Amino acid sequence: MAVEPLIELRSVNKYFGDLHVLRDIDLTVGRGEVVVVIGPSGSGKSTLCRAVNRLEPVQSGTIVLDGQPLPDEGKALARLRADVGMVFQSFNLFAHKTVLQNVSLGQVKVRGRRKEDADRRSRALLDRVGVADQADKYPAQLSGGQQQRVAIARALAMDPKAMLFDEPTSALDPEMINEVLEVMRQLAAEGMTMVVVTHEMGFARSAAHRVVFMADGRIVEDRAPDEFFGNPSSDRARDFLSKILKH
């Protein structure tokens, strides 16, 4: 199907010193598409995810969001970042603020909403991710799975055009992983544009429109999940899958 591009990376290169971590990356994510990025550790997956909203600056190439090239810095970049929700491995909630305050803060500061309106929206989103009853607690009083669901609500509160997930379940205990993936599956079903870096192959199979497999800083395969898991075309992907799927 023809999809309207929302995120475009063209010939993107990124170095950490002498280490070439992203090599000539070309990737287009259509509006409403869920793209899952997988690959071995050190393949550049998280760096790719963080480059999309310039948390990692790149040395060359262009990144376009909704038709606009990413600004380098300043207010224009802050505005654009607000359009791209980011969920990290480590929650990144403010420990000294309640759950409700965590979700409302960006709406007031960046989106300019009145506190009452922000709080109303926050409560609705906390309900949507299944933690409405935790609104007045502090992050330390919540389980890891609950904290990550609050982080998703906080990102959604900004009404983003796209959501980036950088290994959102890798810091969680096994029994909490599914409660977070369930929220993400729901978002995918509702048409949210998502780029998800994850080791959760079940999620990749069930929720992704495309699986992007990275190795050594390059995109090696970019295919529909059935094709990728059923018949990977590269030795590198076959080797990776044979190690990860036998668990």
Structural key phrases:
247 residues, globular, alpha/beta, 4-stranded antiparallel beta sheet
* Helix coverage percent: 25-40%
User: Tell me about the biggest sheet?
Assistant: 6 strands, mixed
SSE series:
EEEHEEHEHHHEHEHEEHH
Q: What proportion strand?
A: 25-35%
Query: What gross morphology would you assign?
Result: globular
Mean pLDDT: 92
Structural class: alpha/beta
The count of strands amounts to 10
Give the count of helical stretches: 9
CA radius of gyration = 18 Å
Write structural notes for this entry.
It is a single chain. With 247 residues, the protein is α/β, with parallel strands linked by helices. The protein has a domain at 96-159. Helix content is 38%, strand content 26%. The protein is built from nine helices and ten strands. The protein has helices at residues 45-51, 74-82, 99-109, 115-128, 144-156, 174-189, 201-207, 225-230, 235-244; strands at 5-16, 19-30, 34-38, 60-65, 68-69, 84-87, 162-166, 193-197, 210-215, 218-223. The strands form two sheets. The protein has a six-stranded mixed sheet with strand order 6-7-8-3-9-10, sandwiched between helices. A hairpin with a 2-residue loop joins strand 1 (5-16) and strand 2. Helix 3 (99-109) crosses helix 4, helix 3 (99-109) packs parallel to helix 5 (144-156) and helix 5 (144-156) packs parallel to helix 6. The mean pLDDT is 92.
